[in-house]
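Ticket closed. Logging final result for Class I SAM-dependent methyltransferase.
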Amino acid sequence: MDNHWNKFIYKVWAPLYDFFFNSGQFLVARKKVFKSIQLKPKQKILLVGVGTGADVRFLTNKNVEITGIDLSPDMLQKAKMKYASHQVTLLEMDAQNLTFPQDSFDLIIANLILSVVPNPEQCLREMIRVTCLDGQIVIFDKFIPPEQKLTVIKSVLRPVIKMLGTDIGRRFEEVVAPYQKAIRIEDDSPILFNGMYRKIVLRKLKEYGSF
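Final structure:
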């Protein structure tokens, strides 16, 4: 996967994305993720990989400042059509190279993005960088459980599925390893498909505001 390919593949996915990933069990899982988030008035919230705006619905009318970024202009266009009447800022941007200053957001929502970007470690680093001290990063994504090995079938299918725009072989423990001193894991729980998808909540530690 690279950014050029991802732009192309998500141009193809844009008309179908809501049908597959914003309905049924995925919609139920998204509701569970947001049910546990404690929002505060005037919070600045960044949706990384906002896509067609599947998660924006849970934040509108909450007296918060919403910004969403995505690499795909086609996905963003879908989001803009949905939320034209709301105060939501939607920007085309690479999640691996966020153009916001350090400590810009109180809360970051990173749903179904770390399994998509070419470099998940760099993406997480950028999210931590732009999170305010003591702020949170909420992740809903698929990762291999730490105690599991990648099966032969998944190993064979992995490069094929990568061509469809996602990676089924990533381990969160490897992605987060370089930043253990910068964050604290406050929650890591299964949320969909017997733990294939997890909800992970990170807290940016005050003593590691710069790195």
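The longest strand covers residues 131-142. No further action required.
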